[in-house]
Amino acid sequence: MYPLTPLPYAHDALEPVISKTTLETHHGKHHAKYVEVLNQLVGDEESRPLEDVVRSAEPGSKLFNNAGQAWNHGFFWQCMKPGGSKPSGELKDVIASSFGGLDQFREAFITEGATHFASGWAWLVREGGGLKVISTHDADTAITRPQCAPLLVCDVWEHAYYLDFKNDRKGFLDAWFDQLVNWDFVAERLAAAEAGEPGWRYPQA
């Protein structure tokens, strides 16, 4: 069985970028439903890490969709903190060497998310020894890519922003990047990837 991961902050802590209503609905309805269906599909005896379930499920299947979305959302909540933070140290240096600087990375990330067609996720990943910006469709997730370590993700499904920004996805991404990114978490994920350690794990009950 897999739990609905608790939020690491209060429902109103990410305002004004993400309203209390949006976060209550996104976490308490959307994420909760993915977890509920996932547990119905795998049964009470499933004990594998969720990452293994995602990687072994047939892409596009009901199991893959619900397992992938459960994992993506659990990771997404960790990528934010009230007031955000700023990249520093090695993370800042690696961003500069990969993109030319934080401003260039910001532009690449927001463009990837804003122009992604339909539902999905915008990611910063460590792959091939460097950092890359990618996007995935629907429930697809960076953890299914070989030698890919996710560092940061933003949900660009409409339910993540529509109540607050209507159809202005770019406006959401601008505000999200500038005010909510938990760069301390990103730095931890980078350090783990460079040390060859396992990535973030979805909690088990």
Quickly list its features.
single chain, 205 residues, mainly alpha, minor pseudopilin epsh fold, three-stranded antiparallel beta sheet, 12% strand, globular, SOD_C_sf, Mn/Fe_SOD_N_sf
Description:
By secondary structure, this protein is mainly α. It has one domain (19-196): 3-Layer(bab) Sandwich (minor pseudopilin epsh fold). 48% of the residues lie in helices and 12% in strands. The chain has eight helices and three strands; from the N terminus they run H-H-H-H-H-E-E-E-H-H-H. It has helices at 20-42, 50-56, 62-78, 89-99, 102-115, 162-165, 169-179, 183-194; strands at 120-127, 130-137, 148-155. It has a three-stranded antiparallel sheet with strand order 2-1-3, sandwiched between helices. The protein is globular. The termini are close together. The mean pLDDT is 97.
Main sheet makeup = 3 strands, antiparallel
Q: What does the overall shape look like?
A: globular
- What is the terminal separation in angstroms? 6 Å
Considering the protein shown, what is the CATH homologous superfamily? Iron/manganese superoxide dismutase, C-terminal domain
Give the strand order of the largest sheet, numbering strands 1, 2, ... along the chain: 2-1-3
CATH architecture: 3-Layer(bab) Sandwich
Helical amount among residues, as a percent range? 40-55%
Spans of at least 5 consecutive residues whose pLDDT stays below 50 are: none
Q: Output mean pLDDT.
A: 97
Oligomer: single chain
- Give the class from helix and strand content and strand pairing: mainly alpha
Along the chain, the helix and strand elements come as: HHHHHEEEHHH
CATH class: Alpha Beta
Strand tally: 3
Number of domains in the coordinates? 1
